[in-house]
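re the bet — no i am not wrong, look at it urself. input seq straight from the record:
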Amino acid sequence: MLGDLLSNVKSAISTIFPSGIEITSIEFEGPFVVLYTKNMDIIADKPDLVKMLAMRIHRRVVIRPDPSILLPQDESEKSINKIVPKEAEVTSIYFQPEIGEVVIEAKDPSVITGNNDFILNELKKEIGWLPIVIRTPPLKSKIVDDIRMHMRMVQEDRKKFLEMVAKKISRPRSTGEHWMRLTALGGYHEVGRSAHLLTTDQSKILVECGYDVANGGTPYLNMPELLPLDSLDAVIITHAHIDHSGLLPALFKYRYDGPVYCTPPTRDMMTMLMLDFIKVNQSDGQKSFYDSEDVRSMLKNCIVMNYGETTDIAPDMRMTFHNAGHILGSASVHIHIGDGDYNIVFTGDIKYEKTWLFNPAANKFPRIEALVMESTYGGHKDIQPSRSDATDLLVSLVKRSMERNGHVLIPVFAVGRSQEVMLVLSDAIKNRILPEVNVYMDGLIHEATALHTTYPEYLNTALKFDILQEKNNPFLSSFFKIVNNSAEREKVINDPEPCVVLATSGMLNGGPVMEYFRNWCDSASNSLIFVGYQAENSTGRRIQRGMNEYIYIDKNGVQKSVPIRLSVETCDGFSGHSDRNQLINYVAKMEPKPSVIILSHGDYQKSIELASVLRNKFNIDIKVPNNLETVRLI
């Protein structure tokens, strides 16, 4: 109960805080305990007090200023500009009076947040407001601007929502027999529409809510175990791909109004992909599962967590995100059940190899009894080239086309693969392995790349150091060009100079990539390089298998055909998923080892083949449930 928690907080404050600190109000917002005080200056000088309080009450603590000590906004803005060094390059300042915060957007936030928070503490003392520092995207991002504006507009409603979440988290625990079960609602014996329902005797959470783009499949959201939707304590999204998050706004359309836990990049990235999903459905004449208003409702309810941060999500559940190495912000989620009763990890999609973008997936946890793991490439033949070999092959293929004065077309998905290819090309050009040619980005690629520049903390150690310490951001290289519209696209198509184009969609099933392909496919000087998976029945797969003529309908409704003479190449090794060996090594080096592994996100045969080797190698109980099957874990 919140009353009991309030008593515990007051008791801890009286023990830990010096008598000179006046706490004027204690509130509860989601997983946070919020303290309002007139002594921001004293607390700013004693940050360990807040850490000690959080440890004592086992909750995350936020300190906010009492409204009576806030300096007027115009005076505060002058003080901010005076205290914050010009090197931070502040681009905007806006105040949130409802919660006593001032948000400072800066091109280099580290100038403000570094040096043991010295500048932050000076600001707290001077203006009273709680300073929140965020990065100005180095690449202009409409999605980031829109999300930040929306979150400012819904601040009052969001505060009420968080108070509701706090009450739900703090409800009394049951005293009977404790149990836990996992129900497969999608993504088992298949890839797509991932959804896992985790139920205990006290709570219920949904991990993932994806849509199967290839087959049009949705999770089994009408199952009695899930309904009514307001019985859910929370939804957790491991990463932004549509097959993991694409149906989430539909929950809000049908009156789910609970929290969504994800990392900050995942929130932004999935919003971008969801809005594009609506747009694509409308352009294809299909009815969308939800509209932009449902996406905005989802945004209001997102509670973002960084890697390593732990929070309560239900009366008997605590959650921590860990790096999954798959795409920007992708996470494996560790859930602690009860008072040490059980620990379960959902890997999401993982890459257990250092890539151009990310560190390998984390596989060290405080405790783990059950592991729900992807098996996309678990088949005995699913061995991929290393990132190093894939890099060498891609560079050699591009170089060969450049020597023919040809154009290179690389179909890509907007998120992840695009940015890795950009880094490979940037490195090769800067090291003079490739000539300095224009590399064009068409489709959502620029917006996705802008998100990567907004969250460099989520990139691998070396890349993060280059960007934050060396001030060398490869995504900002001068040879990367944005194609903003059809007129610019036509100009690129008709330019006789050699170039590289990265364009969506990745399987040539539509999108801007098709215009380049139609115009360039009849020349043997040009190259088409696949760096991603081509699904059965996709145009990309048919071209890989030797299709020699492309038939299409022009804008006037006339059927036309064009011969395919360009060089068709496939460069494996850029997948964001672990191959079979990496999946086995992920388990081999996991600490501690789980007692049971549940395989999902893989075709049936691949899951079965991976289950066999894991069972024989590690003597662990392996389960490969069907969709709609329930596994009891306690």
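see?? The CA atoms of residues 596 and 621 lie 5 Å apart. told u. also DSSP finds 20 helices and 28 strands in the chain. so pay up
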